[in-house]
Amino acid sequence: MSITLQSDDRANVRPKKDRTRKSILRAAATLFRDCGYHAASMRDIADAAGMKAGSIYYHFQSKDEILVEILDTGVRGMHAAVREAIDACGPDSTSEDRIGAAVRAHLGELLAHRTFTSAKIRIYGQLPEAIRQKHRPVRRSLSGLWEELLAEAQSAGAIRADIEIKPLRQFLTGALNWSVEWYDEEGFPVELFADRATGVILRGIMRERKQVVPINPAGSIVLRERAAGAQRKSARTRLDILTAAAGLFRNKGYVAATLRDIAAATQMKAGSIYYHFSSKDEILDEILELGLRDIQDGVRAALGAQGKDADPRTKISVAAHAHLNLLLTDSEFTSANFRIYGQLPERFRMRHRSLRQAYFAEWETLLVEARDAGAMRADVSIVQLRQFLLCALNSTVEWHDPSKNSVGVLVERCTRIILDGIATGEHQSV
User: What is the pLDDT of residues 142-183, one digit of tens each?
Assistant: First the structure.
């Protein structure tokens, strides 16, 4: 028997279907954000959306299709918001006006769809290349819009000629994007945060500009000491297990990586892993501890090598260099820690929160010392600056390509922006 829909019925079919699709996308984004892409199945997504497992296929053919729509929707919305904000500035606006408007629009759209954007940030590095390839044209459209804006500002003389546009865009949007992991809009209006972030980008944090001197911090002290301590076979095996697990957690997510996966990565039988660790949780706890200890000890060692009389600019540059070295090249544990921390159950985060806070406090002390010495602008909020600065540094794990530039080149670019801003001399204010 065929059924003919009345006009009112037809009007209701599409909105209901759209609501169902949106419900599926929200459920999937939450699962991807909290558990990782690999751990979430179509059945999990259907359960989270409150529907039967088979019904989800009326709306999406696969988990990959859901993922691509989650990734693309957020970026398209951001592109539209930033484009509209720039156009609304009008022909008489300055480059700083347009950059500020773009930052506000970018952050506003980012935070308005926090579940989707946070999911994207946490899982993008874990995705198969085929999916990233599908999403790349949409990402390039937003990147192109930002690069066009910054290039126009540079051509107008508002941005220093010695700053390369693409790395600047990567740094700026990376810092903004990672703010979803810490920013609380209820306690601090997004417009004020956007204005302060724009101020740091344009004018930097230091009162005076100085020539950037290449810094060579204290090297991989932490790793050399660890290698020296792993002489016994059992210690080496334990370290091999932790290193393999850190790579798997970082690339697949904690939930998806199994003990069997970890054993296979270390070329040992699955049961043999229990001679060294009682559970995957124990492995994770040690990785989190090592990652935080590595970066804390590495930054301390680098600062210690400069001596007590080092000036604030040098200290901040050295700390940033050591942070990036540990994050990008020297420590699998630090990289895994920052990559997966947001996806971990609260019980893990609680156990390691005090150590994270201690590291953050050391950065705040560094910045307070610079301000109290008169080297840093007095209008900069220390806590928000520390959060923004570390987000900017941590976001490099998503876009830095070591085959094109060394960590040394990267840190020189990052610290130049943080310390002195991007505006030309006549735009500089203290």
Answer: 999 999 999 999 999 999 888 899 989 999 998 888 888 777
Hey, which residues does 159 pair with through a beta bridge? 423
Overall average pLDDT of the 403-430 stretch: 76
Q: What is the value of pTM for the model shown?
A: 0.82
pLDDT tens-digit map of 53-77:
899 999 999 999 999 888 888 788 8
Out of 3.20.20.370, 1.10.357.10, 3.10.580.10, 1.10.1610.10, select the CATH number for domain 15-203. Answer: 1.10.357.10
The one-letter amino acid code at 239 reads L
Contacts of 222-230 spanning 24+ positions with Cβ under 8 A:
222/293, 222/294, 222/297, 222/298, 222/301, 222/326, 222/330, 222/331, 223/294, 223/330, 223/331
**Domain 221-376, architecture per CATH:** Orthogonal Bundle (1.10)
Cα(231)–Cα(234) distance, integer angstroms: 9
Structure-block tokens of residue 302: 């680098």
